[in-house]
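> forwarded from #structure-qc
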């Protein structure tokens, strides 16, 4: 199945996979910290197990970073 993942066309050998499965297949580190855009929509984490991928779907893994400091001086 051909998917676009983070802007790159990729072939995934499996079918009937969910967003959760794709996170495992792609060895996404800290999946609990990743948001997922699926065909232009941000998915709620509760949808990861129920959203089944189809040929041509577009998936973006979005990592939000926090921390750091702003020094004024």
């Amino acid at each position: 199945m051909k998917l676009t993942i983070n802007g790159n066309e990729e072939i995934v050998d499996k079918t009937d996979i969910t967003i959760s499965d794709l996170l495992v297949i792609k060895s996404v580190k800290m999946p609990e910290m990743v948001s997922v855009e699926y065909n232009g929509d941000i998915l709620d984490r509760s949808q990861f197990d129920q959203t089944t991928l189809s040929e041509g779907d577009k998936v973006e893994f979005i990592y939000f970073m926090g921390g750091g400091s702003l020094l004024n001086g």
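QC bot note: The helical segments are 19-25. The domain at 2-63 is CATH 3.10.20.30 (Ubiquitin-like (UB roll)).
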